[in-house]
Each structure stands twice: as C-alpha cells, then as structure tokens.
Amino acid sequence: MTIALTGATGFVGKTALDEAVRREEPVHALTRRTQAPRTHVDWVEGDLSNPAALATMCHQADAVIHVAGLTNTPDPAEFEDANVGGTERLIAAAKEQKVKRFVFVSSLSAREPGLSAYGASKAKAESLVEASGLDWTIVRPPGVYGPHDIDYFEMFRSAKFGLVPLPPGGASSIIHVEDLARLLLDLVDASPALVRRRVFEPDDGREGGWSHKELAKAIGKAVGRRVYAPHLPRSVLELAAKADRALRSENARLTADRVGYMTHPNWVARSSHKVPEAVWSPRIAGEDGLRATARWYQEQGWL
User: Fold this and answer.
1) Rounded to an integer, what distance in angstroms lies between the CA atom of residue 114 and that of residue 178?
2) Is 192 contained in some domain?
3) Per-residue exposure over 141-160, b if at least 16 CB sit within 10 Å of its own CB, e if not
4) pLDDT for residue 242 is more than 90
5) For the purposes of burial, counting CB atoms within 10 Å of the CB of 98, is it exposed (0-12), middle (13-18) or buried (19 or more)?
6) Distance (Å, whole) CA 82 – CA 127
C-alpha cells in the first residue's frame, strides 16, 4: 500500500518512515526542506498550510498517516492553525484525492482539553477526523521516548546530575517510539472490524503506568545514578516556565501551556482503549527501552 505520511522528518514521523521503508511500503512523505533521495520514498516539499502540496502527497495514496503537528510553542495561539487547521486541510486533500484510510496521531492530552491549548487543539482535530466521513483510526500516544527525542532527554540529563524535579504526584504511561511506529503501520491495513473508527491509547504494557517517582528512578538507573526526585508545586513550575522562556526564548522546553497538563495527576493509558492484541502489542518494556535510550544519548555525546 502507498502511504501518505506527514511529519516524516520529526521524531515520531521519522521512525514511522524508517518502519515503512523496512517493510518496503511506498511512501509519499511531506517535508519542509529538500531531502536526500531514499528508496521507497517520494518526498513532497510543503507543509500543512499548503493545500497543493497536501494534494500531491495524497495523490494515488491508499492511506494517510498524519503525524505532523505542533507540540510546543511559547505562543499557544499557534496550536490552533497548526493542529486544527492543518488537520482540516489534510482531510480535504485526502477526500479530494479519494484516500479513504486515515490514521491520526493525537495525544492523551486530548482527554482533558481544558488543561492546555495543545490538548484543546488535539481534541478539536479529533472531532474533525471523526466527522470527516473517512475510514479513520485515532491514536493517542502517552509520553513517547527513544533515540533522537529532546523532551524526555531533559529528564535523562537531570538524572545524570542526580536530581530530577517532578510535577505534583501522579502517574503516566510511556511508549517507545519504535513500538509506536510499528502500531501506525500495522493500523493501515488491519482488520476493519478491529480498528476502524476507534480511538486507541497504546503504551509499553505496564499495567497502571508509571508513577512520576518510579519513572524518575528508572531513568536514573538507566544512566547509572541514584536520583533525588522531589515533587514541585504548580506555582514553582510556573516560575520555572517563565525562567526557561527568559533563558531559551523560542527554544524553551517548559512552557506555561505544558505546565497545565504536566500537573494533571493521571495520564495513564486506559485499558478500555487498548489496541487489540491481534493487531499490535508492545515489544519494548519500559526498563529496557529507557536503558537503550540512555545508551544512545551517551553514544551521541548528548549525556
């Protein structure tokens, strides 16, 4: 099957592209910049704001995997156009080009749209997908980690110094990026009765997810350090977000919007939204994946 893939140069999208190439699936991959030629890949220059590029990407494709989206910005208003408007334009292109299968990568934050502008934008995008008339599946990943990731890297780097500041008490699920990539490809031609018009919340298979402290200690173990992991109140995190903005400007990783959903106590994938085992199951346990990720960071000189 020919797949139209957005976000093909980003963290999750690049891994999905690698998985598609491994399977020898033809891919029309959207990119903002010129890319080197690659077997099985037809690069389409453009972005989610360009209807003509989206139409070209969807032309003669059998399915769309929509990964691209804005996950972090100092200006929350930007989420609306990138995540809602971009999804709306992509749906229009898919319908114009008669592509019926549509796999959308959302976020667990869409469960609580009132907590952040990011979550609200993902929830609105989900509504567009559900109302599209396409043959859709929505995937809400929890925290995605693995080689090349820059978000969880902050925790690995802190753990290297023996200190991992945490939000207020709570728990979350995680998933290795390679497991998520396999899922996205597996969903493309899975049995319709099992996946069509369904919302899934995949994870690493750990029942009940990880408490914040458990995850901090596991990351510490992965980098070979015993860590001190204090819970910080929301007020302190808000001050930290202001400091990060002052220090790193547009490159700030901790924003006020992120504080909104970081302080929610439950980002655990729900068993009622589990992917059927006949379709997919995780292969990379959290401890193993965290250890391998730490090793990759070290080999690349990040740690």
Assistant:
1) 30
2) yes
3) bbbbbbbbbeebbebbebbb
4) no
5) exposed
6) 15
Q: In what order do the strands lie in the sheet with 171-172?
A: 210-211, 171-172, 266-267
- Tell me how far apart the alpha carbons of residues 22 and 189 are, in angstroms, rounded to a whole number: 16
Q: Which of 12, 210, 3 is nearest to 106 (CA)?
A: 12
Q: Count structural domains, the chain.
A: 1
Tokens 């030629």, residue located:
37
For the stretch 90-149, pLDDT in tens is 999 999 999 999 999 999 999 999 999 999 999 999 999 999 999 999 999 999 999 999
- Any idea how long the chain is? 303
Give kind and range of the element (H or E) at residue 15. helix 11-22
- CA 282 to chain centroid: 16
Q: Check residue 42 and give its pLDDT.
A: 98
Q: Does some domain include residue 197?
A: yes
Cβ atoms 25, 185 nearer than 8 A: yes
Q: What is the CATH number of the domain that holds 80?
A: 3.40.50.720
Q: In DSSP terms, which residues pair with 66 in a beta bridge?
A: 6, 104
Q: In angstroms, rounded to a whole number, what is the distance separating the alpha carbons of residues 243 and 182?
A: 38
Give the structural domain span for 278. 3-144+175-205+270-283
In contact, 257 and 118? CB cutoff 8 Å: yes
Please give the average per-residue pLDDT across 194-211, as a whole number: 97
Whole-number Å distance between alpha carbons of 287 and 272:
24
Residues 6+ apart with CB under 8 A from 189: 1, 63
pTM, rounded to two decimals: 0.95
